[in-house]
Design goal:
This protein is mainly β. It has one domain. The protein is built from two helices and twelve strands. The strands form four sheets. Strands 1, 9, 10 and 11 form a four-stranded mixed beta sheet that branches. A three-stranded antiparallel beta sheet has the order 2-3-12. It has a three-stranded antiparallel beta sheet with strand order 4-5-6. It starts with a strand and ends with a strand. The N terminus is likely disordered.
């Protein structure tokens, strides 16, 4: 299978105990978060915290790809755009993955299905795969803790940085790998395998992994255009 995640090999470091972070709350709206200018070639600004997070080190909420609200269970039976990986009803480029052969060739989230846009407004959206790659190409990363929360610190040449907590993911009703891995959706679907979405994964080993099903709950970090 074509790899559907952006792999980021971070420098090796010892894992520390992590009891910090939470599942977010009602905070993290556009009036409290800060937009960070990392001096990227595109001029894109990145939010300083995850969607649904009260603080930059909070995990925030978890979203299935193309959904805009957290939920109790993350599986195909609860997924908004098809109750099976081969019965998609939106965002489908291959007829054998669509319900009754459905295709629409949509490969990027529309605003109504974008957790960042719906929850934050203010021009916020989920970054594309290309925009995630731009961030990774123009920052250096290191594992660190912030208020006892383990995560990846990305620092740009202008001295600005982003902290991305290792929030793990939600599969069915289970929170997995919190304090070890960080999974962040992009707005880009996998063309060859439309039941998968592309994401950035921050892991200790820095290994390449295959794509994840769209029903899995990952965190979301918003971007917006520079409005100056």
């Amino acid at each position: 299978m074509t790899a559907a995640l952006i792999a980021f090999g971070l420098q090796s470091c010892n894992k520390e105990d992590n009891n910090g972070g939470n599942n977010g709350g009602d905070g993290g709206d556009a009036t409290t978060l800060q937009w960070v200018d990392l001096g990227l070639p595109s001029g894109l600004l990145w939010a300083d915290r995850n969607v649904g997070a009260d603080k930059p080190e909070d995990y925030g909420n978890y979203y299935a790809w193309g959904e805009t609200a957290p939920k109790e269970a993350y599986n195909w039976s609860t997924y908004a755009h098809g109750n099976d990986g081969y019965a998609l009803t939106k965002y489908c480029s291959q007829s054998n993955y669509g319900l009754d052969g459905f295709t629409d060739n949509l490969t990027t989230l529309e605003a109504s299905d974008d957790a960042a846009t719906v929850n934050l407004g203010d021009g916020a959206r989920t970054p594309t795969e290309v925009e995630w790659q731009e961030l990774l190409d123009n920052t250096s990363g290191s594992w660190t803790t912030r208020n006892e929360v383990y995560g990846c610190l990305l620092t740009a040449s202008n001295g600005k940085s982003l902290f991305l907590p290792a929030a793990g993911d939600r599969y069915d009703t289970i929170l997995r790998s919190a304090g070890e891995d960080g999974y962040y959706w992009s707005s880009t679907m996998v063309w060859e395998y439309p039941n998968s979405g592309r994401a950035s994964r921050f892991i200790l080993e820095g290994q390449m992994t295959p794509g994840y099903g769209r029903f899995v709950g990952f965190t979301v970090r918003a971007v917006r255009a520079n409005q100056n």
